[in-house]
Write a structure and sequence with these properties.
single chain; 126 residues; alpha+beta; OB fold (Dihydrolipoamide Acetyltransferase, E2P); six-stranded antiparallel β-sheet; globular
Length: 126
């Protein structure tokens, strides 16, 4: 299972890449594997400011729909529109082309709540 050490993680199986005051967010390799074939990603919160752990969208797989929780408070500034036509990128490249949103985060202290790769591995039993 792929859990890149340079990323941060949440207990909700999302990964976070920090670049300045912007965070790129997606779901982990573990999460996409649990969900199965992803057929749709819905994010209708672009340009909205949400609090940490608020729902920013959903991922629909063949068997289930899962909510996506914002890992950091802030404004959602971008959605990966490639996922509208190719949601399977979340399955094939969850840490690359399968990213979901970019957030301009508003509270850097929330970064301390994110999990390291080792902490995340411990949660999923990896």
């Amino acid at each position: 299972m792929n859990i890149p050490s340079d990323l941060k993680y949440t207990k909700d199986h999302e990964w976070v890449k920090i670049e300045g005051d912007t965070a790129t967010v997606g779901i982990t390799d573990f999460a996409q594997g649990e969900l199965g074939d992803i057929v749709y990603v819905e994010v209708e919160t672009v340009d909205e400011t949400l609090d940490i752990e608020e729902i920013f969208g959903t991922v629909e797989a063949v068997k289930t729909v899962s909510d996506l929780y914002l890992p950091l408070s802030g404004e959602i500034i971008e959605f990966n529109e490639a996922l509208e036509d190719e949601p399977e990128k979340v399955n094939t490249d969850p840490y690359g082309d399968g990213w979901m949103i970019k957030v301009k985060f508003s509270d850097a202290s929330e970064l301390d709540n994110l999990l390291s790769a080792d902490d995340y591995k411990a949660i999923i039993g990896g």
